[in-house]
Amino acid sequence: MAQLDVREKLEILADAAKYDASCASSGTAKRDSAGASAGIGSTEGMGICHAYAPDGRCISLLKILLTNSCIFDCHYCINRKSSNVRRARFTAREVVDLTLAFYRRNYIEGLFLSSGIIRSSDYTMEQIVEVARSLREDHQFRGYIHLKTIPDADPALIAAAGRHADRISINIELPTAAGLRRLAPEKSDETIRDAMAGMRDAIEEGADARRRYRSAPRFAPAGQSTQMIVGADAANDRAIMATASGLYDRFGLRRVYYSAFSPIPDASAILPLRRPPLLREHRLYQSDWMMRFYGYRPAEVAEATDEQGMLPLDIDPKLAWALKAREHFPVDVNRAPRELLLRVPGLGVKAVDAILASRRWRRLSLADVGRLSRSIAKLRPFIVTSDWRPTALVDRIDLKARVAGQLELFG
């Protein structure tokens, strides 16, 4: 590998990190060095990667790879062993110095660090952990740290990562075990899931210790997340949603991230020639929110798919489900419980909460609901108010055509 300066390495390894979508800092513990006798950084500031927390805050993170060299040859990866890309590698000290320099200039509020695998999984994991350890212990860095771990590394190393990082990511890679065997034969679905289970247990034990003893150290307070590639294998949206639901239930994940497959130079012949529509990735995120925040069961979200198990691209999955479950509509906004209001296409969580608060004092009319939502025209087929009833509108054959293109999942 040619000798490169830090600026050249940063250019290569920041660009290589763009394929990792699981970059967010929501849910972390609050730490601040203001007023402290020692320490630098904070997890609460406003900010070279822009992520967004659930409350809408824009969070700037230094998002880089430790190295884009790798001993594995996963077909879908731009950094695979056989790929003809320019290689670079940071030392642990260089990553630490970069993070501190960027933070002092107010460019970032934390670090997102991933890596290709060099020498061995354990050696690479040691280098990743050393970055986090040095930031925390040598420099008293109190900003956000998100580490991408290597599933088949020694569990003690993964546990050490959890002691220093706010969030841990262990990528599931592909939606199905069959897809992983075909496209990444050197990786094991069982090993990945075992690592997730170990991290779940460690996070739960750490949380329990914190409840019992206030002085107990925090362990990955922002939890763990994962990422799966969409469109590299034959898995349909129904299978992807089933995998995501299982991961949430079994491992208590904070987030599942979806990354649309992107064709890479000199790609293997077994990969698709074209990337899937980016709208497919968007629809999967919407279905994910339906399960996490709108109270839909996985089987209900699956009802929004077509005969091939794919979510429609022309309408959002919440509307697609409503059109197939018309027996649940119209919903009386003055009487319906929160869980039913959340299923009305075009009503988001904030609008539903506003309706619930307002109807304590008066019966809501169509105009009242219109003031609490984006557009009453989008809601008319699905709601009943004090002065409006859609009659047979919800049963119209052309209802999809009347509302398609107008509704947004979150209202």
TrEMBL record:
Tell whether S-adenosyl-L-methionine is among the UniProt keywords.
yes
- What cofactor does its activity depend on? [4Fe-4S] cluster
UniProt xrefs under SMART domains: Elp3
Q: Which domain of life is it from?
A: Bacteria
Query: Could you tell me the keywords of this UniProt record?
Result: Iron, Iron-sulfur, Metal-binding, S-adenosyl-L-methionine
Keyword match Signal: no
* Protein's recorded name: Putative DNA modification/repair radical SAM protein
Which species? Rhizorhabdus histidinilytica
